[in-house]
Amino acid sequence: MHPLGDRWWRSSFLFIKVLYVRSFESAACPPSEQVCAAPAVATTGQVDIPAYLSQTYWWAYLHPNAVRLFERQWLVNLILWGNFARLRDAALAELGSASSPLEGNVLQVACVYGNFTEQLVRRLSPRAHLTVVDVAPIQVDNLHRKLGSHPQVSVLRQDSTALQLADASQDAVVLFFLLHEQPADVRRQTLAEAWRVTKPGGKLVVVDYHRPSALHPLYLPMMAVLKTLEPFALDLWRADLTSWLPPGAQPASLTRHTRFGGLYQQVVMVR
Q: Which of 33, 45, 165, 172 has the greatest count of CB atoms below 10 A from its CB?
């Protein structure tokens, strides 16, 4: 990478981030607080906001203005360079379809801006059940608003590193753009928990960033964006996603597809 180009991109996106953060300064809840007040949500015991989330991503997931800003389908699609629907549909196709609805228990780890969960619900058979967990009360509340009351869906406040679900209780588990937001130790714990709750023969579907070719036209811009706004994301450029699986985890099968010139990856593991 040319050093001048790298500095230019990093400076540009740092400037954008500063403007974005300053736009929150007039809000009632200061950024220094871990999370702003939100309506009561379903919990399963004491759950604390992780330090990395409150310190690094408060502006994206914990502040009320973040939900108001990012909960826009067109914006989520723009952030993924127009690939949201393609990535969503590819992940959901691994879980079920209109002609072959998803059966059993399904776990989505972390809420997602955009209509990912709504589309997942549409693929549930009448006998299937979806559980969505997220550590942030405001995200749980936001998903409740989006889904409304649904007899086949439970939305719970839980930490991805300490799921309060039984071993081998889920027929499918999906992580959609979560791991790049977590430090390596947290990422490792999240995958360990996702693996633990997946049934033998069940699927673990992960969609996230991937290192594209250096010739990719977005290689330099995305490196700058990730360095500035997503400090843990470049881990997924440097190492194979499966390197964070728990020791001894041996998928019965593993398939990987890269998309948009290698910038994104989908990894499907059968336990």
A: 172
DSSP string, 93-110: HTT--SSS-B-SEEEEES
Residue 59 belongs to domain with CATH number: 3.40.50.150
Confidence at 82, pLDDT banded by 50, 70, 90: very high
Could you give the CA distance from residue 220 to residue 208 in angstroms, rounded to a whole number? 18
Instruction: Provide the number of structural domains found in the chain.
Output: 1
Instruction: Give the gyration radius of the chain's Cα atoms.
Output: 18
Whole-number Å distance between alpha carbons of 189 and 212: 26
Q: Give the integer Cα–Cα distance in Å for 111 and 178.
A: 9
Burial of 145 (0-12, 13-18, 19+ CB in 10 A): exposed
Quickly tell me which residue has 């990987």 as its tokens.
256
Residue 79, number of CB atoms within 10 A of its CB: 15
Residue 254 three-state SS: strand
**150: domain range?**
3-270
What's the pTM value of the predicted model, to 2 decimals?
Answer: 0.85
pLDDT tens string 213-244: 999 999 999 999 999 999 999 999 999 999 99
Looking at residue 97, what is its pLDDT? 75
